[in-house]
Amino acid sequence: MAEAQAPRRAAFLDRDGVLIEDDGYPHDPALVRWVPGAAAALRALNQAGYWVFVVTNQSGVARGLYPEAAVPALHGWMNAQLAAQGAHIDAFEYCPHHPEAPLPAFRQACACRKPAPGMLLKLLQSWPVLRAGSFMVGDRESDMAAAAAAGLPGHLFPGGALDGFLLPLLAAQKR
Ligand SMILES: [Mg+2]
Ligand SMILES: [Zn+2]
């Protein structure tokens, strides 16, 4: 149980364009391409004692591009792939909604779709997180806005190798 564990800093990571390439609504593990250095970056976060959380907008569900079950299935696949490389993600949160979705079941202006901070706030409430030293990494301004709305610093990933981007951030957090 998360509640029984000691508080730790947390890294909130966007998924598409940060951990896996954003080819346009990625959902099929057979077609997923990891961002270079993603596993190494996650392993470094794990070893530094951070909770690693993924917060991802998945409006492809609302758009009817893939079933909602494909989202947790992909996340399970990601963690299996990472386990083989000594890394893991502690929790995933996704938003399947869109305010103009063709599928009525997912058509809503929700509090979880970034730039709203709902997914981050849910994780902050349900895990023992030390806010000081926690941060968000995303590849869009909506990620930065969600971080700011949750009271966390956001770092905009410009692409390239994720470990090359993240390791200096981690080093800067250490004293
Ligand atoms: Mg993204
Ligand atoms: Zn939502």
In total, the number of strands is 5
The largest sheet is: 5 strands, parallel
The secondary structure category is alpha/beta
> CATH fold name, please?
Rossmann fold
Summarize this, please?
This protein has helices at 38-47, 59-62, 70-83, 118-126, 141-149, 162-173; strands at residues 10-13, 51-57, 91-95, 135-138, 154-156.
Could you outline the blueprint of secondary structure elements for this entry?
Elements lengths: L9 E4 L24 H10 L3 E7 L1 H4 L7 H14 L7 E5 L22 H9 L8 E4 L2 H9 L4 E3 L5 H12 L2
Parallel strand pairs: 1-2, 1-4, 2-3, 4-5
Describe the structure.
It is a single chain. This protein has one domain: HAD superfamily/HAD-like (Rossmann fold, 3-Layer(aba) Sandwich), CATH 3.40.50. The chain is 33% helix and 13% strand. The chain has six helices and five strands. The chain has a five-stranded parallel β-sheet with strand order 3-2-1-4-5, with helices on both faces. The longest helix has 14 residues. It is globular and about 45 Å long. Zinc ion binds next to loops.
Supply database-style keywords.
single chain; 5-stranded parallel beta sheet; globular; Rossmann fold; 175 residues; binds zinc ion; alpha/beta; binds magnesium ion; 6 helices
